[in-house]
């Protein structure tokens, strides 16, 4: 990780040859910019070197982790495979006849990860390699054209070494951020790629997408880099034959960088109707036809409808999961019996005060018994368990519950740790696994009219996608008119008529009221909360954020203002027992428990929202060091790299399933 911002270092970074201090590209660039402008560098503080010497950016050594030219070779293969399979891309060279890729000229240009030996200066590296740059022809007919008649797709100043020089001089900040041209190859490293003929289907019977993604990812399925670089067209392995649609969808979801403007062009309330999709999957629509609810958690075709809504950034709900779970494992009595003596911190949902010195048993004793709850000034408190059990301990502490959840969680293609569409599964075994849960959320209900301004979980957003399962709903004894108050809370929460009808006419137990907003509306919500805080005389420090700090719950009046002043409308969702709420990465959301609830959430990284994971990781760098979201636990750059590498390997292995025309 970067020693400054705690973000995972992917490849290129800067290292002190004396003490091993290492910084990422972003921190190096920011430090250089501030030093040149004479500004005080307060965002991130750099630790000192030996003998308390200051780390100066120009004294650090550029270093890479991925060996040699492997990363650049993979880049060449990505472009080659993409062109052959007709996969759409948005990189600058996608519409040009001559594709240009960047490669370092030699091993001496940029040293590998090692602190031994003399440090080369950028001037020396530039002197050793001429700046004469030529493009590479990918097509057959264009290769005969003289180099002088070919216009490069990008200026020569974008070569790797010139880019490093720009970092030193600060010119990199003058680049147009909207255009990120590919870097051309140095003259002495040009390797023309053969023409790429189109492919046509043969008579070979291929596996369907459904059967493929339902097969878990094995530990050995993550392709080694050397196998990809040394592979040749036509070589296949068992289990790697796939239709173009499979990897087209997976790979295109990764390489396409769809901007938020694409989403903003869609009309509000856009829904995917079953008649359009042509999928025979049991489902209905809530939130005025804006929320998809799948009715059969075991249906093998759920992903067909799910992904159509998911790629638009919409939440999705799946109902009926509790019928498949072992209900005895999820009852409060079982938790009290197994873990009642453990010490734990509790949180007062009304005041956000942390209560220490309590036990797990103290919490469960009042879960369904109001008079038996811990009291504050003789009033029973509405409590929630704080970080119990810790995310990394769930599987070890509760193996039977973990197995029960993983065996029955819907859409396993996305949600399981080995799911084919969970990009986190592509990380090799030698990586530290990202902390993706499961994580439990245990809390009492906020039933009284005064409690409607409080949240069980305040407004926030997560760096990854999540599936939140309602495994138990407890209706406590000792409170009158509970059902009537819950109905009023649901109505006050802007729920639609079908949701209210589901509560009144059905025999289901409502557990929690959710408000989820689209990721594209995050900035509007942030601006609104800052405006409200200023109206209330509160400060907005630079290293704090009204959403990431989880300091706000949007009650009815704030939600109304948000819609009227900024045009932001979310999804009001009532989660009943057995419902699973899918929350897209980067989507602000808040939760208000109606009754006492036990919820379990499993995080995952989907191809549709990996771009949000990336940008949120960058955003979290600027939070304070004590912030819970500051540390990069997802390793999103590594996830993207290995997912693309494996997707390309599968595409290359499938080429033998087709014949040239």
Automatic annotation (TrEMBL):
JmjC domain ranges (all copies): 398-621
GO annotation (BP), single: methylation
Ranges annotated as spanning the membrane: none
Cofactor section: Fe(2+)
Domain of life of the organism encoding this protein: Eukaryota
Enzyme Commission number(s): 1.14.11.65
MF terms (GO), sorted A to Z: chromatin DNA binding; histone H3K9me/H3K9me2 demethylase activity; metal ion binding; methyltransferase activity; transcription coregulator activity
Compartmental location: Cytoplasm; Nucleus
Catalysed reactions listed for this entry: N(6),N(6)-dimethyl-L-lysyl(9)-[histone H3] + 2 2-oxoglutarate + 2 O2 = L-lysyl(9)-[histone H3] + 2 formaldehyde + 2 succinate + 2 CO2
Keyword set, alphabetical order: Cytoplasm, Iron, Metal-binding, Methyltransferase, Nucleus, Oxidoreductase, Transferase
Note describing how the cofactor binds: Binds 1 Fe(2+) ion per subunit.
Enzyme class (EC, first level): oxidoreductase
A Pfam family it matches: JmjC
InterPro entries registered for this protein in UniProt: JmjC_dom, LSDs-like
Gene Ontology cellular-component annotations: chromatin; cytoplasm; histone deacetylase complex
SUPFAM superfamilies reported in the protein's UniProt record: Clavaminate synthase-like
Family in the record: Belongs to the JHDM2 histone demethylase family.
Domain commentary: Leu-Xaa-Xaa-Leu-Leu (LXXLL) motifs are known to mediate the association with nuclear receptors.
Biological role stated in the UniProt entry: Histone demethylase that specifically demethylates 'Lys-9' of histone H3, thereby playing a central role in histone code.
The protein's name: Lysine-specific demethylase
């Amino acid at each position: 990780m970067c020693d400054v911002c705690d973000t995972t270092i992917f490849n290129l970074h800067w290292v002190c040859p004396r003490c091993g201090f290492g910084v990422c590209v972003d921190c190096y660039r920011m430090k250089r910019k501030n030093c040149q402008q004479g500004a005080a560098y307060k965002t991130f503080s750099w630790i000192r070197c030996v003998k308390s010497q200051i780390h100066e950016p120009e004294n650090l050594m550029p270093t890479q982790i991925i060996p040699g030219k492997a990363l650049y070779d993979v880049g060449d293969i990505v472009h080659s495979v993409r062109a052959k399979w007709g996969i759409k891309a948005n990189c600058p060279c996608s519409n040009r006849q001559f594709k240009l890729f960047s490669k370092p000229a030699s091993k001496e240009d940029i040293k590998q990860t090692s602190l031994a030996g003399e440090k080369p200066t950028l001037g020396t590296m530039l002197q050793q390699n001429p700046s004469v740059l030529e493009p590479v022809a990918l097509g057959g007919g264009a290769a005969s054209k003289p180099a002088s008649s070919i216009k490069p797709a990008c200026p020569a100043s974008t070569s790797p070494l010139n880019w490093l020089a720009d970092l030193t001089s600060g010119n990199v900040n003058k680049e147009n951020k909207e255009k990120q041209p590919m870097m051309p190859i140095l003259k002495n490293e040009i390797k023309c790629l053969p023409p790429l003929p189109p492919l046509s289907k043969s008579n070979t019977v291929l596996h369907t997408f459904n059967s493929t993604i339902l097969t878990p990812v094995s530990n050995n399925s993550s392709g080694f880099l050397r196998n990809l670089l040394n592979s040749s067209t036509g070589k296949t392995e068992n289990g790697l034959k796939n239709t173009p649609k499979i990897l087209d969808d997976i790979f295109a979801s990764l390489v396409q960088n769809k901007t938020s403007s694409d989403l903003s062009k869609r009309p509000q309330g856009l829904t995917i109707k079953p008649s359009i999709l042509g999928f025979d999957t049991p489902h209905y629509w809530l939130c005025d036809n804006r929320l998809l609810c799948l009715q059969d958690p075991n249906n093998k075709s759920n992903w067909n409808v799910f992904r159509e809504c998911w790629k638009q950034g919409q939440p999705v709900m799946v109902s009926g999961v509790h019928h498949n779970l072992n209900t005895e494992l999820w009852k409060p009595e079982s938790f009290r019996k197994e873990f009642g003596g453990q010490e734990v911190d509790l949180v007062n949902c009304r005041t956000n005060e942390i209560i220490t010195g309590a036990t797990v048993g103290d919490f469960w004793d009042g879960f369904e018994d109001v008079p038996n709850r811990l009291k504050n000034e003789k009033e029973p408190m509405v409590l929630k368990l704080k970080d119990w059990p810790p995310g990394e301990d769930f599987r070890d502490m509760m193996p039977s519950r973990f197995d029960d959840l993983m065996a029955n969680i819907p859409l396993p293609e996305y949600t399981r740790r080995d799911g084919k569409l969970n990009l986190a599964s592509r990380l090799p075994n030698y990586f530290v696994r990202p902390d993706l849960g499961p994580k439990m959320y245990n809390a009492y209900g906020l039933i009284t009219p005064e409690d409607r301004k409080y949240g069980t979980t305040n407004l926030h957003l997560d760096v990854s996608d999540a599936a939140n399962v309602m495994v138990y709903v407890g209706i406590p004894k000792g409170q009158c008119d509970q059902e009537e108050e819950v109905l009023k809370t649901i109505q006050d929460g802007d729920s639609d008529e079908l949701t209210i009808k589901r509560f009144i006419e059905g025999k289901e137990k409502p557990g929690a009221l959710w408000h989820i907003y689209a990721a594209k509306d995050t900035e509007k919500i942030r601006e609104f909360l800052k405006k409200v805080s200023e109206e209330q005389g509160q400060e907005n420090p630079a290293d704090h954020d009204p959403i990431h700090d989880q300091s706000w719950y949007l009650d009815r009046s704030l939600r109304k203002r948000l819609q009227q002043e900024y045009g932001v409308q979310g999804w009001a969702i009532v989660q009943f027992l057995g419902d699973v709420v899918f929350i897209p990465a980067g989507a602000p959301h808040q939760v208000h428990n109606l009754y006492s609830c036990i919820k379990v959430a499993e995080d995952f990284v989907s191809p549709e929202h990996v771009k949000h994971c990336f940008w949120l990781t960058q955003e979290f760098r600027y939070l304070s060091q004590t912030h819970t979201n500051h540390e990069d636990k997802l390793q999103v750059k590594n996830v993207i790299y290995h997912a693309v590498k494996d997707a390309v390997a599968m595409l290359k292995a499938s080429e033998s399933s087709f014949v040239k025309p």
